[in-house]
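Response to reviewer comment R2.3. The reviewers asked that we include at least one raw input/output pair. We reproduce the pair for Ferric-chelate reductase 1 homolog isoform X3 here without editing.
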Amino acid sequence: MKCLKMSSTTTTTMALVALAALLIAATVHSLPQGAPEHVCDTMLPFHSSGRDLPQNSVSPFGIETSTSVVGQGQTLRVDITGVPAGLTFGGFMIQARNRNPPHQIVGQFSPSRDGTIKLMNCENSVNNSATHSNAGNKPQVSLDWQSPVDFLGQVVFNATVAESYHNFWVGIPSNPVQVVRRDAPGLAPLPTTNPPTNFNFASTRAPYVPPSYVVPNASPLVEDSFYDGCGQTKTCFGFPDGCVASKSCNGLSAVTVRGDIFEFELRSGKGSDAAYVALGLSHDAKMGEDLATECVPENGRVNLYSSYTANNPFAAVRGSVSQNSARLLNASFVDGVIYCKVQRDVVTTVEGRTFDLKNGAYHLLIATGKTLKDNSVGYHDIGRLPSAQPINLAVVQDLSGSSMLLVRLHGAFMIAAWIGTTSLGIIFARYFKQTWVGSQTCGKDQWFAWHRMLMVTTWTLTVVAYILIWVELKRAVWHAHSITGLITVILCFIQPIGALFRPGPNDKSRPYFNWGHWLGGNLAHILAIVAIFFSVKLPKAELPEWMDWILVGFVVFHVLVHLIFSVSSIASDREQSQRVNTFQMGEVSHHHQHAMRNGMSMERKMDAPYGGLRKGLLGVYTIVLALFVVVLILLVVLAPIEKVFG
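Raw output as returned:
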């Protein structure tokens, strides 16, 4: 963008001669289809003769705005008119620019109902400039301009107006308009330098050089007014559950009903990096066959979409819902926070299902996520929560989220199984085959009886936990936690089946079974712990990030205990070997051979050396392991734990 300064007459004249063009057609010889887009920067008429220059006199035409203060995403009216009244013009071009550097074009114009306005796409943005669509004489032109949702500051409307072929003015400025946050109450209107009925506009100037103007101090902004009226004049619902009371929602919605007018407000959480925020109206609190309202920031503005969540596949499909069933009343996208205010039709019918907001009762389902698909929003990886019960939207009330019992039970069972019983069962099988020798339970050696009981418990808890999460989700959701968890469940399910076909102790294939059983069990254990680590990051789990350090502490403790057991096993094996070697030393008679056989038989019926150490270490391990399990289960069941102790 090049700056044209009227103070340099020679330079300005040369530039204008090079770029001059016609705006006006018909009886005044202007371009009948309006200004071409290659004059977006200069706003100069493109006269073919190159002989006519813009006027340096005070323009008889002026730019008047309906307000001097506008909220983000709101609309104001802009009038181009002449003084005295009745003065007509044929062509024009207008755009709003940032009053401060880099003086970019901002906002968007709306199409006119009578078709007299042609919208232009300047600086690779849509509808941010406007020109005439016909060259007939006009006493006045009124345009609707929507302020940007991601801009705060002052804008100035600049226009080129052509009274005739030879008489045109370039860069006619309006008084500045202050764009403020949409929820900023009581901002003093910017003063108008000259009465709107008595224009006294400056001389022709380049459109990106604003007039001299002192901005008054704005009133302080309210930090967060979304929560005002919750439970009194509007029904508010957000996640995590209970966040409305603490004003700390990561996703928030509000429903306001006035007669047959149903308005929905949506907002993402601060610092959530949300790509969308959506609200579903659901008959059953489960995703599927729901009417959804989506607010998505795209290309500098927040767009509204209506969609229908299908059962198969589980996706929000926009094409099946009339986009005219909802209207965007207000929107903003500031500091990464999405806000929108939407009015929906009282009745919307989608694929044979009718959503009657006045007579029906619906669960609210709020969701936000960081990704978008081609024709829908992406997975709600920031969070999602349905209301506990369906509500009459017209009844203002306090809402709570649906029960998380199945999710909490799933997490608790998996921790008990894979942090608790599996870890202890592996210890018994690996280090206690030569402990409690001669003692049995149900006809089985102690180590095997405990190992089998603990692993059967693991298998039962895992299967139940997996069923619970399927009942809750009713669909497959693929991410790191679900993939590693599924592999763990498969290995867990196979292990006892393989044990049923265990070869006999002297079978030549027994070593292969032993290695396969060992590998499957340990792999399942490792993957299960990895899956628990991944679960900490799941929004639905609502677990604190510092839970990772508790899991790290468990892993370190578990590995350390294994090292101690391994060292004691090596020492025990060495001592047993020395005892056997003692019988083999010196001259062995028949009597001695008989005594040696009896001694070795007695050795097999005795505990291996350091049995006391192993039993003591097992007791310590069991107590500490129980503490880890209890703490982790409490974090899962009481999630979010910050809310309990906050």
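The CA atoms of residues 75 and 146 lie 4 Å apart. The radius of gyration is 38 Å. Further pairs are available on request from the corresponding author.
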